[in-house]
Specification:
Length: 218
């Protein structure tokens, strides 16, 4: 589903052409996303839980076209992809009960310096979700990619703090990709400590289930 106006699509396509000149999903020339790859970004949202049992709604499975597009926005600076990916995030957000705040997982200083933008917040803005930047990192964490489930949990443990809630309120944590869920659990811990009720998490993509424990390569 793509409800962006035609002019916005045109701008996206011109910008993407300037960057790469080919489809982000399959490399055919002359378009930001060809129609089949656009369709690959409209999936039925899926449900997961983190190791501590936090319910997670994921817009996409992290494989194929979706994985390529997410890598391009995270690693190659192709922010024009935030629009179609944001549409997928917006569709998944509609699975959540209304009346909650949306709190993005904080972006590390080094990642922000490298990219110049915060991926979860960029996606949220394109999904028309209000950004409540309430969490911040309080220490550096090691690269998660080489780590297993237990190591990831240890690595991120107590790495975030949240500004305290003035009134009790319900929030949802938002991130780009869930692998083991350790980062979301740490975000939820920090928010609950600050007085929030964390109802769940919303993510753009979840790694395929069969690879959850075996492969952490992104
Ligand atoms: Zn394509």
């Amino acid at each position: 589903m793509d409800d962006s106006p035609r002019w916005a699509r045109l701008i996206d396509e011109v910008a993407a052409f300037a960057v790469s000149g080919c489809c982000a999903g399959c490399d055919i020339p002359g378009t930001l996303l060809c129609p089949p790859c656009r369709r690959a970004l409209t999936q039925a949202p899926q449900k997961r839980t983190t190791p501590t049992g936090l319910p997670v709604v994921a817009a996409l499975t992290y494989e194929g076209v979706a994985a390529r597009c997410i890598r391009r926005i995270k690693e190659d600076g192709e922010t024009v992809l935030a629009r179609p990916l944001g549409s997928a995030l917006a569709a998944a957000a509609r699975e959540l009960p209304p009346g909650q705040g949306f709190v993005p997982v904080p972006t590390s200083r080094s990642a922000f310096r490298k990219r110049g933008y915060r991926v979860p917040e960029l996606l949220m803005r394109r999904a028309a979700l209000p950004v409540d930047r309430r969490l911040r990192s309080v220490r550096r964490i090691a690269d998660q990619r080489e780590l297993g489930v237990a190591e990831r949990a240890r690595n991120v443990s107590r790495s975030m703090v949240a500004r305290h809630a003035r009134v009790e309120c319900d929030v949802v944590v938002v991130d780009d990709v869930i692998t083991t869920g350790a980062t979301l659990d740490e975000a939820a811990r920090a928010l609950e400590y600050a007085g929030f009720r964390v109802r769940g998490a919303l993510v753009l993509a979840a790694t395929p289930r069969h690879r959850d424990d075996a492969e952490n390569t992104w």
